[in-house]
Specification:
The complex is a heterotrimer of chains A (291), B (769) and C (162). Chain A has helices at residues 9-18, 32-37, 73-78, 80-85, 87-93, 99-102, 107-112, 120-126, 225-230, 237-250, 261-283; strands at 2-4, 23-26, 45-48, 58-61, 64-68, 130-135, 138-143, 148-150, 153-154, 161-168, 174-181, 192-200, 206-214, 221-222. Chain A is an alpha+beta fold. In chain C, helix 2 packs across helix 5. Chain C is globular and about 50 Å long. Classes of the chains: A alpha+beta (291), B alpha+beta (769), C alpha+beta (162). Chains B and C meet through helix 1 and helix 18 of B and helix 2, helix 3, helix 4 and helix 5 of C.
């Protein structure tokens, strides 16, 4: 295995595109190194992108936020303004693994690992994030929900890298949240994950809503019916019931060592309700902690 | 809860019962302590093991030619390199020993019996080369049908692991082989009459999953065999004399060819009482003529080192309306893994041991299946059977409308109670523990929404066994103590404290080491809650040996008969026994050390004994849980462990044992389990999905130490390390049952199971939440 | 492929080593630099026994390549005490009997130090969540939590200044 640490995106894309054997991007490495260690992957080249300034920075302007793909969970958490704008996204990223893992793990890596249970992905999808992609043929953007096409499968072509994410500015009365269900309190992979972002008007009526579920299908889902359930309501009990039903209906889960189909379908509804309530509280300006 | 030691007699000691800093502590907080994988030797090779990908298969051939030819590969071994062993059992420690099974665990014979079963080992100049070599070993397998579950393994027509296995303990002996290795029968009184006298009878079946000891340090060792055949082995083990004996037998060597040094050990809980890598590293080293280091990966630890049994059980208990238990009956089926040796024996013996019941019948089955051979795990067998019994006891109390502590108190074992497994108990602390539970602030505290409180009792025998200790009085009066039971959780501190108490020598003047197998006579292992009991007893004996010698030396100096000199326990000095003996200034051990040379030479206290009189430890635990009614997730929100220590030498480490046992028991109750796929492969061979409790999963774990001294130990020690893992399974399960209104009878109570049970109960109006 | 020549700093000392691309920082620390205080419990980032700091940031050294250490400041358990003066956390772990077998202890201490540098006054819950990635199988965590809280208290009051 060879290791390269280019300082420009172009160089990184070129290295990846021109490698005949298996090449992998190294960001935080918290998935990649485990897969190498356990012989799941045997790349001949890893390209460490952390020496590229662009993928390591967080910036914002009137239109919104740019978060580099290789910004770590710990760095996201320390960014007070980002945390205030998109607390659900930051919290989701901070649920990945331990404090130690937070020191390394990135949202770019979380997405590109291609796991349906990735914690930050439903939060990004709910927030309406765009994935910024660079490749040998230039740059493009994709909605985050379109990046994963299946388990360990991405809509990226050879040589393409996720360089970062673009998030809109937080709506005036907007709020987001991410909750997951795990058997323990920490250190587990999500059995179900749920991200909700919503906005309300001055009267408290929901004007926009997006919900995404993780670990209930081959890839994180954007639940289209979520908006139908919430928009135009004050996100009251009956609206939350509809949202929960929409969440459960959207699930196409499997039985595995982490949970059963039935369990995932039921808990998706429970989490949808709870997550939306957190998002709503935040939209109302309350400062809340999800965990 | 650091000050709750309930003892009428603690004040008689000056050192025992205090909380000094352990002598090996600084090395362990600075990273200096050397654990199993921390030693390297010049010229060492890396040893790796090739493991079976199949749960059950016949090995048609193994071709190691290509691997052996690979540059950098220095040795390859398979089963053929080991001598054949007799297939028969003999009593050993807390279980039995069958050398044929031991070697078959180290390396497969003509069949692989579980996924992960070792089939060959290599030693090479680097890890990478060793990995490559493993890939070059060609094994031709004929895959056979496998069986994982204990009930399925007992069913007629199940895939047979051992063609010649005829169930022992059944008369007449069966004529056809099965996976049932042994049947055990234990009884007392007449259960039929007992159940006839009962007003209420509850019978319920239970299942528990296999769980792993979960020590953080993987198995590790380094071996070197010199050109003249002398072998040294440095290993993380609970018993280095055991390792030496097993390796010598498997290799066919004289025992004195092997010196084993116990590294600092990163947790064992019973799992490091057997050999896996050690014989391989010795043989590879002998073949390669270089040191060979072997370290398991976490995945190897989970797939191929001993978990404890999964079990299937049925319990039936009857009681009168006024709360007297009239009979108890248990059927226990324990899965042993690939070879016999589940802890169903102690499981049977412990099942009803916390109670004084006149009529008991217990039947146990030891059943093989295509899993790794089980190893001891903290009170082997007891948590499983006592969980089932304590669940039924709790349900009975509910049905009789009795307080669960009062019901237990009414039936508690006490001095004179005859246990179903034979003996009559001496002074024991079951009643004291239950009374302390009843009096605790915890028991009287209010519960919140969706919460429930459970209580459970627990019992473990504790053991003694062969022990050697030496205590050297140095020229300056300092003392050097050498013990032979590895220190896993503060043993050195406890031994120094007992020596200090006995000799009135300040703690800092006593240094202690765990000796290697050449430095002492035989020591049985650290296990069975025996090391503070047995090595403590031997330490006190060795200290008394020093006192006797000090008297002799002073008598010689003073030209008095020995009877005219005595040891003054208050000052820690020898003095004339009375006014008739003349006026001599008392001599401390510092004074005695100075005259050792001219009065007969070096002074060494020595004790070699088989420690008898180990006494059982009883416990009562209280658990509060909160159940999320929508997800089925159970959180333990408050916990109190109450246990009889006999005597808490170093109370902090006694509390630590209680707390550690509780945490493991909570893991067993809620989330830990071996999960197998249809293919017979372990699905969760790592700390990610084998879910041991993490810091945020647990509350503070309160402890109350009861002291009902063990009369057979000079300081009353019982041993505390194992009983504490027994009650949590039922305490948590009983708490969940009381919170939800649903009786749970299967572990772990993982969220999908709890939610499914809640939903089913809600459908017929039976759920409380 | 030739090995990488890495120049870095470990516990304030300049260090150079050669490593293969695939070697982790944990491999390098233990096998090349003979710094065996950092323990290997799983190699998959699930146990925390290999915790170190990199430029002050707590990480699992098994989840980082050795070559990535170039130019960084690595902190390990061997750098916690200064000379014969134990770090307050080390002292409190001894006083509270917060270790039994001791194999998780180096990782727990490195993690706890990183916590107290960032949050000098953590709640019990914060300590528990911060240390959730440090598995301990012996203690049930009770005494570990007490020791960390007590050390934090002493450090805040300056009782362990210097």
């Amino acid at each position: 295995m060879r290791y390269a640490a280019p300082e420009t995106i172009e160089k990184a894309c070129h290295l990846l595109a021109s490698e005949q054997g298996l090449a992998r991007v190294l960001a935080g490495g918290t998935d990649l190194l485990v897969q190498i260690k356990t012989d799941v992957l045997d790349p001949v080249l890893v390209v460490d992108i952390k020496h590229i300034a662009e993928v390591r920075s967080i910036t914002n302007d009137a239109k919104g936020w740019h978060i580099g793909a290789a910004v770590t969970g710990a760095e996201l958490k320390e960014h007070a303004a980002l945390r205030a704008a998109w607390p659900g996204v930051v919290e989701a990223a901070n649920l990945i693994g331990s404090t130690q893992v937070q020191g390394r793990a990135t949202m770019g890596g979380n997405l590109c690992n291609g796991s349906p249970a990735a914690d930050s992905v439903p939060a990004l999808i709910a927030a309406g994030a765009m994935a910024l992609i660079a490749g040998p043929n230039g740059r493009r953007e994709l909605p985050v929900e379109d990046v994963m096409t299946g388990v360990r499968k991405l809509a990226l072509t050879k040589g393409e890298i996720i360089t970062g994410f673009r998030l809109p500015a937080r709506p005036k009365h907007g709020g987001d949240a991410y909750l997951r269900f795990i058997p323990r309190t920490e250190m587990d992979i999500a059995v179900v994950g749920c991200g909700v972002a919503l906005a309300i008007d001055d009267k408290g009526v929901c004007t926009a809503a997006r919900m995404s579920l993780g670990a209930v299908a081959a890839r994180p889902l954007l639940v289209a019916d979520a908006a139908n359930a919430l928009v135009g309501t004050k996100v009251d009990a009956s609206a939350l019931d509809k949202l929960a039903a929409a969440a459960s209906a959207a699930c196409r889960p499997i039985d595995d060592k982490r949970g059963t189909k039935d369990f995932r379908i039921k808990v998706a509804g429970v989490l949808a309700r709870r997550t939306a309530q957190f998002a709503l509280d935040r939209a109302h300006g309350k400062t809340t902690q999800t965990h | 809860m650091q000050d709750k030691v309930q003892s009428p007699m603690s004040s008689e000691f000056s050192v025992i019962g205090t909380r000094p800093i352990r002598p090996d502590g600084v090395d362990k907080v600075t990273g200096r302590a050397r654990f199993g994988a921390d030693l390297n030797l010049p010229g060492q090779l890396t040893g790796l093991v090739l493991r079976s990908p199949h749960a059950h298969a016949r090995i048609k051939s193994i071709d190691t030619t290509a691997a052996a030819a690979l540059a950098g590969v220095k040795a390859v071994v398979t089963r053929k390199d080991f001598i054949e062993q007799p297939d028969g059992t003999s009593a050993f420690g807390e279980g039995t020993l069958n050398l044929h099974d031991v070697i078959s665990t180290v390396l497969a014979g003509d069949k692989v019996l579980f996924a992960g079963h070792p089939v060959a080992a290599v030693a090479a100049t680097s890890r990478e080369i060793a990995k490559q070599a493993l890939k070059l070993i060609k094994v031709d397998y004929e895959v056979l049908p496998h069986v994982i579950d204990v009930d399925e393994a007992m069913a007629p027509g199940a895939p047979l692991l051992h063609a010649g296995m005829i169930t022992q303990g059944v008369t007449p002996a069966p004529t056809t082989p099965s996976n049932i290795a042994k049947r055990i029968d234990i009884g007392l009184g007449d259960v039929d009459a007992g159940f006839k006298a009962a007003d209420v009878i509850i019978e319920r079946s239970f299942k528990t999953a296999a769980v792993h000891q979960g020590y953080i340090e993987p198995h590790a060792c380094i071996a070197t065999v010199s050109e003249d055949g002398q072998a040294e082995l440095w290993v993380s083990t609970q018993g280095h004399w055991i390792v030496r004996m097993l390796c010598a037998k498997l290799l066919g060597w004289d025992i004195n060819r092997i010196k084993v040094t116990a590294a600092e050990i990163g947790g064992g809980f019973g799992g490091k009482t057997v050999v896996y890598l050690e014989p391989l590293s010795l043989l590879l080293s002998q073949k390669a003529r270089r040191p060979v280091k072997m370290v398991m990966s976490r995945e190897e630890v989970m797939r191929a080192s001993g978990p404890t049994s999964a079990a299937s059980m049925t319990i039936k208990i009857g009681a009168t309306k006024d709360g007297r238990i009239t009979a108890g009956e248990a059927l226990l089926k324990f899965q042993a893994g690939m070879a016999p040796g589940s802890p169903v024996g102690p499981g049977c013996m412990c099942a009803f041991a916390p109670y004084d019941i006149a009529n008991i019948k217990v039947v146990g089955y030891d059943v093989v299946s295509n899993r790794p051979k089980v190893a001891a795990y903290r009170a082997p067998g007891a948590p499983i059977s006592e969980y089932a019994v304590e669940s039924v006891i709790d349900e009975l109390a509910g049905k009789l409308g009795l307080d669960p502590i009062e019901f237990r108190l009414k039936n508690a074992a006490k001095q004179g109670t005859k246990a179903a497994y034979g003996p009559k108990f001496g002074p024991v602390g079951m009643v004291e523990a239950l009374e302390a539970a009843k009096a605790s602030a915890h028991w009287r505290s209010p519960l919140g929404k969706n919460q429930g409180r459970g209580i459970a009792a627990g019992f473990w025998f504790n053991i003694g066994g062969e022990t050697t200790v030496s205590l050297v009085l140095n020229e300056d009066g300092t003392l050097g103590l050498t013990a032979g039971t590895p220190d896993i959780g503060g043993l050195r501190a406890s031994l120094c404290m007992m020596a200090s108490e006995e000799l009135k020598v300040p703690l800092e003047k006593i240094r202690v080491q765990i000796g290697d197998t050449n430095q002492l006579g035989y020591n049985f292992l650290t296990g069975g809650s025996r090391s503070t009991f047995s090595s403590g007893m031997a330490t006190v004996e060795a200290a008394r040996d020093i006192k006797r010698e000090a008297i002799k030396r002073a008598a010689k100096l003073w030209e008095l008969p020995e009877e005219a000199v005595e040891w003054d326990a208050a000052s820690g000095a020898v003095r004339p026994a009375g006014p008739n003996a003349g006026k001599h200034k008392p001599m401390t051990l510092v004074d005695i050390a100075k005259i050792a040379g001219k009065t007969g030479g070096p002074i060494v206290g020595y004790s070699r004994l088989n420690a008898h009189g180990a006494a059982p430890s009883f416990a009562a635990h209280i658990a509060d849980v909160e159940v999320d009614p929508e997800t089925g997730k159970v959180s333990v929100v408050r916990y109190t462990a109450i246990q009889d220590a006999g005597r808490a030498i170093h109370p902090s480490y006694v509390e630590g044992q209680y707390q550690g046992g509780v945490a493991q028991g909570i893991g067993w109750a809620l989330n830990e389990e071996y999960i197998y796929g249809q293919d017979g492969q372990l699905q969760n061979a790592g700390f990610l999905d084998y879910r041991i409790p993490v810091a945020s999963d647990l509350p503070m774990l309160d402890t109350i130490i009861i002291e009902v001294p063990n009369p057979a130990h000079p300081y009353g020690v019982r041993g505390v390390g194992e009983t504490c893992i027994v009650p949590p399974l039922a305490a948590v399960s009983n708490a969940v049952s009381r919170a939800t209104g649903i009786r749970f009878a299967e572990l772990p109570m993982s969220p999908p199971k709890v939610l499914a049970a809640l939903d089913a109960a809600r459908a017929n109006g039976a759920a409380k939440i | 492929m030739a090995k990488h020549h890495v120049v870095t700093t470990v516990n304030g000392d300049p260090v150079e080593f050669l490593c293969e691309s695939g070697e982790t920082l944990l491999d390098v620390l233990r096998n090349q630099l003979n710094m065996t205080g950092t323990k290997e419990g799983c190699s998959t980032g699930d146990c925390g026994a290999c915790s170190v700091t990199v430029d002050g940031r707590l990480v699992c050294s098994c989840l980082m390549l050795g070559v990535e250490a170039a130019g960084k400041k690595i902190g390990t358990i061997e750098g916690l005490a200064s000379g014969d003066k134990l770090h307050p956390l080390q002292q409190k772990f001894l006083e509270h009997a917060a270790l039994q077998c001791g194999v998780c202890t180096p990782g727990v201490l490195v993690a706890a130090k990183a916590l107290l540098e960032k949050h000098p006054d953590p709640t019990e819950t914060e300590v528990r969540y911060w240390l959730a990635g440090n598995l301990c199988r012996c203690t049930g965590y009770d005494k570990i939590i007490r020791a960390v809280m007590d050390a934090a208290k002493d450090m805040r009051s300056g009782r362990h200044a210097g």
